Amino acid sequence: MKIRIEIVFVIIMFFFCWMVLFTRFPVWWKAICISLYAGIILSTVARLWLQNRPVAKTLLWTCLLIFVPVLGYFFYIYTGQLLFKGALFKSKRASDRDLFETLDKNKRPVEMPAMLNDHQRGFVSYLERVTLTNQSQNTRTKILKNGEETFEEVKRRLKEAKDFIHLEYYIFRYDRLGQELMEILTEKVQEGVEVRLIYDAFGSFALSEQDKRKMADSGIQIHPFLPLKFGWFTQKFNFRNHRKIIVIDGKIGFVGGLNVGVEYLGEDDKFGFWCDTHVLLEGEAVQTLHAVFLLDWKYVCGDTLFEDPRYLQPTPVEGDGLVHVVASGPETRDMGDHFYAMITSAIESIWIATPYFIPNRAITTALRVAAKKGIQVRLMVPESNDGFLTQYATQSYFPELLRAGVELYTYQKGFLHKKVIIVDGDMATIGTANMDLRSFHLNFEVNLFLSGSGSIRDLVTHFEEDLKECRRIRPVAFYKRGVGVKWKESFARLFSGLL
Predict the structure, then answer these.
(1) Where does the source fall among the domains of life (predicted)?
(2) Lesser CB count within 10 Å: N end or C end of the chain?
(3) Active site residue 145
(4) Which of the residues 96, 200, 249, 276 is marked catalytic?
């Protein structure tokens, strides 16, 4: 374990403060401690200024570092710094780039389908230029609505596996659903199928050591992503793997919003009905989705499975439109840019469904401007969220959106967890990324971007069906909310960068 120098500084600064305030050491000793403490703070402030952040944030962190002893520095390294430039994941970033560049060299060039219109072509060209991954015309997609439909399809496809099954989840519970999947996976192992599972150490915190041993003893190779044991000493505890991926034999892939747990089937009394969306992939793009898993597998355990050609052998099928698998994380931080580019390409409509709406300023501005231009902008969020801060932080964005003419809807039937953006009814993205700063900056995510695909019609249909279960927020009624609610919104928004 490599302990970062910032953590050492916290310990040293705490020791200095203790010596100055609570001991009878000679004055000259205390003067040395104060000088060294000041040196650490001033050098940190200097590095902060060189990052050229927004002025307000720079001044805020400068004041906190100078006027709040030790605690200010602690908050800075764990929430204000977070090494957004990817220093914590330098080796992973290099591996990702090397593999995707190799895949790019081996891939046939993609011709722009004639059916795409100008704004689709503009966005598709953007993605092709700025991402490490490739577009595919030789991929078929199927939209799966909610947990029952998704996991029936997942279980059916798992049972058909012949060579390998690779799974990656933010939350993997060993409840009824988890045990059903484990029974299938155990049977496949006994048949000679390789089974590998990556789970996020924080998201799957409830997964007991006994449960992990059961999986390992059954022959499943299982590894955590960013274990929490030493995460506090490396800052990595704040970066989580939010991906939900299944790849079967390199031919079938699943990705979307659903983790493994009975709540995703609507069987949790707290959440009730669970509204979500997943995607089944067949064809060439499965290779790219699998590459995302294989790179994460190398990161968690060191095995370079992608050096074996059988794991990255593309299996093209007759496709429908363009499919683009795009991975993001703290080493790339591009998902927010992709959402912004997609939103600003809209001509007629922008429909967004997300459980957490805590966007950056660019996306907020883009939505307001689009609405003022006469573009229909619809935002669907849950009526009740799964946390105080996420609930009120989301609401804090409502006033400016309502004033611009954005249509706001809150889902009433249960918990809305789908993550979908549909532009003009002919472009869409679906995957694991929420419309929030954590998904943009801190989480490892993966999304599909669809252009000219028949699956977009299904997403439109599902969105319209879900709208029937929503309450539209009207400006006059919303503005009458109490002062207490407004204070909660303002307080929650202070933590928007970590939610």
Answers:
(1) Bacteria
(2) N
(3) no
(4) 249
